[in-house]
Amino acid sequence: MALVQLNGVSKRFRKGEETIIPLDDVTLDIHEGEFVSLMGPSGTGKSTLLNLVSGIDRPDAGTIKVDGTELTSLSRGRLADWRAANLGYIFQTHNLIPVLTAYENVELPTLLLKLSSAKRRQRVELALEAVGLNDRADHYPRQLSGGQEQRVGIARAIVAHPRIVVADEPTGSLDAESSEQIQELLKRLNHELNITMLMVTHDQNVASISSRRLILNRGKFTEVPSTVV
Fold first, then answer.
1. Which residue among 18, 140, 145, 154 is the one 20 to 30 A from 228 at the CA level?
2. For the domain bounded by 35-51+74-224, which CATH number is listed?
3. β-pairing, 164-168 with 196-200?
4. Are 24 and 10 in contact (CB under 8 A)?
């Protein structure tokens, strides 16, 4: 069974007199360990899809299951608990809290879980080690480069050992060198830790690190053949 299952999912928005349909009766399976990238023109619903898979938003029609849990049937409170235990989110603009250290920013998701202080510390240290920032644990965001800030964001996304990590333009605010480093890091985490990833990007070079590529346009998915670079 697929880890993520979208079945007949539609989402509509009203904009004045116009109805916008970013997702139109779409079906999609993502299997455990897959790295899926999602491309498409701006405004086509890529971020909407991430929000639906994350349980942040609800579809107007269809069902969404992650690891057998039907998100569309959960209350807001149960969705919040589910996200804390099962989902990691990587933002384009890092979204770090400036008054907290790198360690404290990574620790935040674990505070929602029933963990001992020793187990919480172990998870944070392992996450920082995975992104190569053990030596920056006590640094504040202002003391880090953009690439290092994004590494902290990635460590925060994986610290709770989520079932899936979603990433919204994770290299979009970085320079070319930092972008390449983050791409290599995401690819390594997917391969070595078998982390299932769904990534939105507008950059075909970034999309090429994934094992599967989709294009979203006019509410429908088109799969890009693996032989196309």
1. 154
2. 3.40.50.300
3. parallel
4. yes
Query: Cβ distance 101 to 140 under 8 Å?
Result: yes
The residue extents of the domains of the chain are 35-51+74-224
Sequence letter at residue 213: R
Tens digit of pLDDT at every position of the chain (229 positions) = 799 999 999 999 888 888 888 899 999 999 999 999 999 877 778 889 999 999 999 999 999 999 999 998 999 999 999 999 999 999 988 899 999 999 999 999 999 899 999 999 999 999 999 999 999 999 999 999 999 999 999 999 999 999 999 999 999 889 999 999 999 999 999 999 999 999 999 899 999 999 999 999 888 889 988 655 4
DSSP for 159-220 reads TT--SEEEEESTTTTS-HHHHHHHHHHHHHHHHHH--EEEEE-S-HHHHTTSSEEEEEETTE
213: left (phi over 0), alpha (psi -120 to 50) or beta: beta
Inter-residue contact 36 to 65 (CB < 8 Å) = no
